[in-house]
Amino acid sequence: MTAFVPVLQVISRNRHLGAEQLRENLNYAEGVSNRRRGQVQCASENSWLQRRRKRRSLEKRSETKVAVCGGGSFGTAIAFLLANNGYPVQILVRKTWVRDEINVERRNPKYFTEFVLPDNVTATIDAEEALTDAKLIVHAVPVQQSRSFFEANTEYFPADAPVLCTSKGLEVTSLKFMCELLPELLPRTKSFAYLSGPSFAREMMDQLPTAVVVASDDVDLALRIADMMSSPFFKVFTSSDTIGVEVAGAVKNVIAIAAGICEGLGLGTNSMAALVTRGCSEMRRLALNMGASPITLSGLSGVGDTFLTCFGPLSRNRNVGVRLGKGETLDSILSSSRQVAEGVTTAEALVGMLLNQYNGVSQQDNKEINVYATRAAARYPILFGVRAILEGRITPQEGVEALLAMPPREEN
Ligand SMILES: NC(=O)c1ccc[n+]([C@@H]2O[C@H](COP(=O)([O-])OP(=O)(O)OC[C@H]3O[C@@H](n4cnc5c(N)ncnc54)[C@H](O)[C@@H]3O)[C@@H](O)[C@H]2O)c1
Ligand SMILES: O=P(O)(O)OC[C@H](O)CO
């Protein structure tokens, strides 16, 4: 029926024309409709091609194994996402009963138990089995446990399988970011990428729209990973600013603890907005010193993730802060929590790193060290304040008073 529409349109438009003209127009209209039919044919050929391409890409995906190291909340959410995108995913877990529950009951018994995992998710406790044929390895082990994990399993990492790190923080013992640690601990691996940005695992499991950034020195790798992970509800941006993404991801966890403290103390929204803004200034100062791009800091891994963790009730770092602000001790909070809040250890590591930076390489006498420490603390009062609260050297209330007692200065 639609094929006749142009013919009818030409006839009705040309009621006043002579027979010759009308015939020409009809021929034209016939041509139009033939072309339209051609287009229909082309369109159906195209959709056949598209279907074939899609089928081939799904077949290819089904042969591209992904290993996920760490079966915690984020490892599970990433496995769920990639498996739903057609990739066979094997999660490397530590407990046999967790492995068996995933393989038999199709659920992770410790995280998101209400979700049935797709058939193409399997689990193993054998690192060699998980890593040997993997085409992509996703690292979702907390930062402080990563060194021992890599040292135990480095021999199983295939040299040509890129590693995508999702852990956010700074190692306490070495004061290194994951982008410094990974190449050192996995010397054979040729390429690395780092995923960051506002992404609560729970909301990813619920398939709520989420956007993240994948940073890598290898632009093609970042694009390939973006392609593998993208879905109608998961948007992946790419970046080559690895250090910016890493510094932001580590610092935002400490700012989230501060925001939680502010909430726990009931200080209101004015102070919360001021605190988060000043926290972002400290993030920017540190990251720019380390060579980051300002674009990254105003992006998903910078302010994006800071907003999520400072204001989002699902944030574990924020919840540590809320409980501290309400008067609980850190020991009691940590002993009653099953999950990692990276900001606690990262606060210690960041302060250590900043003191080193200010102290320089050469060792000064104690008096000089104090001068440097005071200078560093004045530049990063929120990071130092959170660390002092976590150490129990000052109370949350005293931390706030110290911030409010700072002299007027130019906003920067
Ligand atoms: N949960 C989130 O919403 C989220 C989002 C983005 C990034 N991350 C980051 O992902 C990383 C992992 O966090 P998570 O939320 O999955 O933590 P989690 O506490 O939920 O789980 C941690 C997992 O790591 C495993 N693990 C600990 N030590 C290990 C070791 N030595 N070897 C092997 N496995 C070990 C534990 O068994 C556990 O399954 C963190 O750095 C976190 O900042 C988390
Ligand atoms: O729950 P948190 O505080 O560890 O935050 C999780 C992620 O980093 C959010 O992007």
Automatic annotation (TrEMBL):
- Which GO terms of the molecular function aspect are on file? glycerol-3-phosphate dehydrogenase (NAD+) activity; NAD binding
Which SUPFAM superfamilies does this one have?
6-phosphogluconate dehydrogenase C-terminal domain-like (SSF48179), NAD(P)-binding Rossmann-fold domains (SSF51735)
Q: From what superkingdom does this record's organism come? A: Eukaryota
Supply one GO CC term from the record. cytosol
Give the EC class as a word: oxidoreductase
Q: Please write the reaction equations for the catalytic activity of this protein.
A: sn-glycerol 3-phosphate + NAD(+) = dihydroxyacetone phosphate + NADH + H(+)
Oxidoreductase keyword on record: yes
EC number assigned by the record: 1.1.1.8
Which Gene3D superfamilies does this one have? N-(1-d-carboxylethyl)-l-norvaline Dehydrogenase, domain 2, NAD(P)-binding Rossmann-like Domain
Q: Ranges for the Glycerol-3-phosphate dehydrogenase NAD-dependent N-terminal domain? A: 65-220
Question: Where does this one sit in the cell?
Answer: Glycosome
Q: Does the keyword Nucleotidyltransferase apply?
A: no
Protein known as? Glycerol-3-phosphate dehydrogenase [NAD(+)]
Q: What is the lineage of its organism?
A: Eukaryota, Rhodophyta, Stylonematophyceae, Stylonematales, Stylonemataceae
